[in-house]
Amino acid sequence: MAAEFRLFPPFRLDSNNEQLWRGSREIHLRRKTFAVLRHLVEHPGQLVTKAALLDAVWPDVSVSDSMPAISVRELRKALGDAVEAPRFIETVQGRGYRFIADVKLESAQVTAPPAARQPSFAVQPDRSPFVGREQERSELRGALADATSARGRICLISGEAGIGKTRLCAEISREAEKNGLTVLVGHCSEQEAVPYLPFVEILESWVDRWDSADDLRRAIGEDGPELARLLPKLRRAIPDLAPPLEMAADQARRQLFNSFSNFIAQRSKEQPTMLVLEDLHWADDSTLALITHLSHRHSELPLMMVGTYRESEIDVSPSLSRTLEGLIRGRLATQLRLEGLPSAEVAQLLHSLSGQAPPAAVVSEIHGETGGNPFFVEELFQHLTEENRLYDDAGQFRAELKIVELEVPRNVRLVVGRRLGRLNEATRKVLAVAAVIGRSFTFELLEGAAGVKSDALLDCIDEAQAAGLIHSHTHYPEARFDFSHEMIRQSLLTELSVARHQRLHLEVAEAIERIHSNTLEDHYVELAHHYAQTANTRKAATYLLLAGQQAASRSAYAEAVSLLNSSLELLRSLPDTAERDKQELATQTALGTILIGSKGDGAPEVKAALSRAVELSRRVGDTQRLFAALFGLALFNLNQARHRTAQGLAKDLLSLAEQSDDPGPRLVGHTVLGQTSYWLGELEFAHANLEQAAALFNPERHSRLAFVYGLDPAAGALGYDGYALWQMGYPDKALQKAERGLAIVQKTAHPNSMAAALNHLAIAHMLRQENEIAIARAEEAIALANKEGLPLWAAVGMVTMGATMVRANQDEKGIAQLQRAGEAVAASGSLLSPLCVASLAQGFGKTGRVAEGLSMVTMLLAAVHASSTLVDEPWLYHLKGEVLLNRVPPDVKEAESSFQTAIELAKQIGAKSTELRASTSLARLMTELGHRNEARMMLAEIYGWFTEGFDTADLKDAKSLLEELSP
Question: Are 715 and 753 a contacting pair, CB within 8 Å?
Fold first, then answer.
């Protein structure tokens, strides 16, 4: 194959491989900058207009008209060209450019096409020298070697601001690239609360490499739909990308983490990779959680992870402290603490900066003032140089230097401020706008917010770059710049008055809206931040709501809650109007939904958000949001054992649902009303509603309801109906209902519903005293819940397993399991039925701890009476009687009274199965007391009522006793 080269000495341009060479050294250019050079070189001597360059290089992308000028400036720097006396590229004022060097075309035969050149993601070259840190560099080089050999390493670099963390990363990044590693860099930001920000930056940089949607689709593979949750522009780059799977909150978060881990794993397998995560002291909780997730996979990959953070900031970030402690104690990471440079290395740095060896007295004075902090050393050196205080008339270092006598500011921010004061006024104004934008800014946004023409703006940028205040960090399609250090940006901000600060934030926000009008979803957090600094409170609240919803879609729940609460705080300052109420309603509803998914429907914050949502939705007449709020509020009260309140809300919910033609809301309404009525002991009413809910279920229409409400309502109705039917004396029908509920959720593959259905089925078997099957089903539920991160359902499964063990006479094992289950229940924040404590009391009674067991039962009876959990009273009195008989000697009289109370209460609510159990126990006691006929007649009456379940243990036990009592 023929390779085509264009020669313009001393340079050689390889069009096929997009490479520019100077002798044997490759000159690295951005792809679009290379494309500009190639177009100019292919038209030597001709005027190439800016419009022609835009059409040739950016044919399908909307970019600023200044992009050609930016690329030409980059080319001049790479070629060593000058605008005043050009050798290669001539500017034709107001029209375009002309390539004026002689160009010679040359072809060469090559055997195979070389691999496509990968763009560099390493930090841009620094203007200042790098000295010292040999021990740290040696450690990092070892980590690079390990990563290249597929033994992943994590290195954490800490130290104060300016100590050289970023610079050390830049140095090791260059070594990594020379050794064939891909370097991916992401930053955390104090200003932008974007969940997963460093990972979003890394993903965006990688996505921007691809010109073809088909190539990008193939490269990103099946994880594309999940990664698009992190980076919405990915869906715009691949328009036909499938949507992500609908999942419960916890599962969605794990799926996102797994997909990003797969993405990093695939990149590192294609080419060993170095992942740099800067400024972790500003990391959000979701970023830290994803770092922890990655840390459990890195050791098996050719991957090196490097994180930097300010150690002094840990106290204000408990999440970071916990994350770092986990990584270091788990021996997953190596920690490198950077201290100030020693005097010898300060001397070396000063020598590099000045070109001459500094006297020991000068080194000592500067070291004493800066503590060896490299950034402070450089700033102080620059300040003293510009003040003409460092050198004598011959250009040599002064023999002595008394900094205090020279009135040098001790605060480095003041030193930076003096340097900024030497810039021309236009540049200072432009940098003030850039500082308001943030740590990093694009040329296009700066141009839009500053209101400065392109050529004048480029002059300001050149001056700021020459002064070392900013540096270029360009990626297609935007020219991007960073402040050289956060302290420089902070110095600029402190000079702004409050009024100017607000004005600049407004101008930046409006510029973002203009420039990115078609892609605002990429900028919700930025817009919220900027508008929050202005008087436009309503817009700030709107963007905070959008940012919160977006964070929730990325499974960043803590960040979502924080953003939504900030939105509510702003809305409280607005006058009471219908528009304000609608906006607050949307925010409260979103907050309640997120809290239910992330903290559970028993969290107190849920009640506050949803109660307010109910009030607002009624005020503005929003029935759809009223339904959602009533549903969540009913579940909250149900979970907290406030059953009468829950039932009242459930009735309101069903009344609202019946106004709709859609059977889906009615299905939900009947389910919730049936569940609340069950706990109140209204078994017939509960069964009627739960049966109606199941009858309304249509698999084709209602399979998504699990993802809307967090739990499949049909499966929930069937599970609860199983409980009701067992209580009512239909154990076979109860089991059938539970089995049907599991069959429904197996088709939807909704983990939360699956765990619930497995627990419903385990409890159905436990009630039927089918102990081995009950334990097996509970184990399945626990395994699934633990895998999917569903602590409530894991706790329910543990309770069921422990209770079943006690019933199966595995008392000690059951007690231990129930004690663990009790801790899990408490951790979940839920107030379950008293099964856990009651079964523990039963186990204590059987193992000689009768007083302890009786105390527990007494406490439970008081609790269920206070909460109107009437369905539990009969069997608790039955349990009390059983425990009393374990006394030594047995308390026969009180036990008999307890059994009789259990029977009467069971009759009142129609709980035939509980009545049968209590009657069997009482009949056995009466027989021992010599009342055989009365015992037989009483037991025969309740036994004769049953029409099914004769193979269950309860009915077999009753039948066996009746046969014993027969004359």
Answer: yes
- Residue 77: exposed, middle, or buried by beta-carbon count in 10 A (0-12, 13-18, 19+)? exposed
Q: Which of 686, 556, 575, 600 is nearest to 229 (CA)?
A: 556
Model pLDDT, residue 507? 94
DSSP label of 397: B
- Judged on CB neighbours under 10 Å (0-12, 13-18, 19+), 252 is buried
Angle at 345 between CA 343 and CA 351, to 5 degrees: 105
Phi, psi of 954 (to 5 degrees): -60, -50
Comparing C-alpha atoms, which of 525, 557, 558 is closest to residue 542?
A: 525
Structure tokens, 495: 């000079």
Q: Which residues of 790-818 are buried (b: 16+ CB within 10 A; e: fewer)?
A: bbbbbbbbbbbbbbbbbbbebbeebbebb
CA distance 633 to 645: 9
134-337 matches 2-109 in CATH topology = no
* Two structure tokens written together for 479: 């020219």
Q: pTM for this one?
A: 0.74
Q: What CATH number has the domain spanning 422-496?
A: 1.10.10.10
The amino acid that residue 967 corresponds to is P
- Other beta carbons within 10 angstroms of residue 321's beta carbon come to 14
Which residue from 567, 461, 460, 441 is spatially nearest to 504, judged by alpha carbons? 441
Tens-digit pLDDT profile for residues 537-591:
999 999 999 999 998 888 888 888 999 999 999 999 999 999 999 999 999 998 9
Convert the pLDDT of each residue in 717-755 to its tens digit. 999 999 999 999 999 999 999 999 999 988 877 788 888
* Structure confidence at residue 118 as a pLDDT band (50, 70, 90): very low
**C-alpha to C-alpha distance for 958 and 468, rounded to whole angstroms:** 91
Q: What is the DSSP letter of 300?
A: G
Mean pLDDT of all residues in 379-399: 77
DSSP string computed for 444-496:
HHHHHHHT--HHHHHHHHHHHHHTTSEEE--BTTB-EEEES-HHHHHHHHHTS
| Distance of alpha carbon 240 from alpha carbon 220, whole angstroms | 14
- Alpha-carbon span 181 to 177, nearest angstrom: 5
Give the pairing type, strands 470-472 and 480-483: antiparallel
Q: Please report where in the chains the tokens 């026969």 appear, as a residue.
A: 892
Tokens read off for 11: 């340079």
Helices (H), 554-642: 557-571, 578-599, 604-620, 623-639
Q: Where are the domains of the chain?
A: 2-109, 134-337, 343-408, 422-496
Fold of 134-337: Rossmann fold (3.40.50)
Class of domain 2-109: mainly alpha
User: DSSP label at 440?
Assistant: E
The predicted pLDDT at position 490 comes to 77
Q: Which residue has the tokens 């047995």?
A: 890
Cα–Cα dist 674/859, whole Å: 27
